[in-house]
UniProtKB/TrEMBL annotation:
Gene Ontology CC: plasma membrane
Keyword Acyltransferase in record: no
Transmembrane segments: 22-45, 65-87, 94-113, 119-138, 150-174, 186-207, 214-234, 358-377, 383-401, 413-441, 453-474
Entry's family note: Belongs to the nucleobase:cation symporter-2 (NCS2) (TC 2.A.40) family. Azg-like subfamily.
Membrane topology, record value: Multi-pass membrane protein
Lineage of the organism: Archaea, Methanobacteriati, Methanobacteriota, Stenosarchaea group, Halobacteria
Localization annotation: Cell membrane
Species, as recorded: Haloarcula pellucida
Molecular functions per Gene Ontology: purine nucleobase transmembrane transporter activity
This protein's name: Uracil permease
Source taxon at top rank: Archaea
Amino acid sequence: MAGTLEELFGLEDHGTDVRTEILAGITTFLTMSYIVVLNPAILTAFPDDNTPGGIAISGYGPGEIFQMLAVVTILSSAVAMFVMAFYANRPFGLAPGLGLNAFFAITVVGVLGVPWQTALAAIVVEGIIFIVLTAVGAREYIIKLFPEPVKFAVGAGIGLFLAIIGLQAMGIVVDDPATLVGTGQIASDPVAILSVVGLFLTFVLYAAGLRGSIIVGILLTTLVGALATFLGLVEPGVLATDAVRNGGFDASRLASAQYDITPLAGAFLTGFGNVEAFSFALIVFTFFFVDFFDTAGTLVGVGQAGGFLDENGDFPDIDKPLMADAVGTTVGGMLGTSTVTTFIESATGVEEGGRTGLTALVVAVLFLASLAVVPLASAIPLYASHIALVVVAVLMLRNVVDIQWDDFAHAVPAGLTIMVMPFTYSIAYGIAAGIISYPIVKTAQGEFDDVLVGQWILAAAFVLYFVVRTGGVLSSAL
């Protein structure tokens, strides 16, 4: 079996082995499995919630819709990762993207009042456009237009993005009305206390050269949380799933999944009956733009961390992983979920040594295995799995050494790319800042001839996107 896998994925050629790839796949799964619960939580319409929008289906309660969406999340993710594994042979995990699902549920369905079926139709159209553009090489061409400093800055920007996501989940960074962000109650919050201990334990294991240190750190932190709950030191649900009780385990708190997804699957077809051409085009444009550059940024940034980029900072054969993303988005929309994209958590598996599609295959299989009992996908607490994000964030910051900081035309776009990503919670916005600033600064330095026409067009496209997205154009058109 091992020999077949080595030959199928070319493990020896990529300097890896079956054990390393499986370990990397488990690591990536542990860090992104939260999406199985979080995506349905965002997309489901809860009548008692003050948040507008979401998917509501007549005759079904929020709990049933939540479980349908969990199943759809798993299936669409698995399809995308099978394409990534066998077609692209790259170690990236894919699933419905955060931010895009919130835009789908809250902005498009809630604020703008677009039927959720029509929003799904926009997702399917976006996916088909992606498939066509990827097949003809247009997406790869556009990504190659990224200025060199932006390509080299994306990894560090994603690192800071990962860090703020991880630190927030761990209770170390919290909201602050005065300063936007602040320090959590590290000495009194059980989640923050255990997270800090787990984080430094993982750092120690990694520094000691232990293979699988990130997985070990996540699992040990999870076990300590479960033990503290079992012994009654904290309330159930704080450090472990509600199923773990003081002195026991309550299996009744693990609800069974709703596997009948027929109310969601194919609903996009009815969505085309509610289409107004201009407004529908704006929605597709917005989904398209964010997904395109989120995916591009993730592939380039994680690719840099994994040593996949060539001497020019380009990702060879990037059209193949892009096709996995395009197929995932199309299938996801058809099944009933928002845009599928490549996850930045893939960096955790790459850091563990994942280099081929076998890593993606392992993640896909684990996603499908979680179908057995959907709620168990969240058995690893968010704070524990996100320790991996902070560890990887620290490691990804080393990418800044590739940037020519003494050249202002490199320093400005690189610096903006790195800063804007975490502060706006968007990979696409960080890339936009870098791409818009590059031709401007280059021209100011008297190096107009060094800027490609395509780079000016790309910068102009981003300006147009910001006008549509933040200038009220979308809301006024609907």
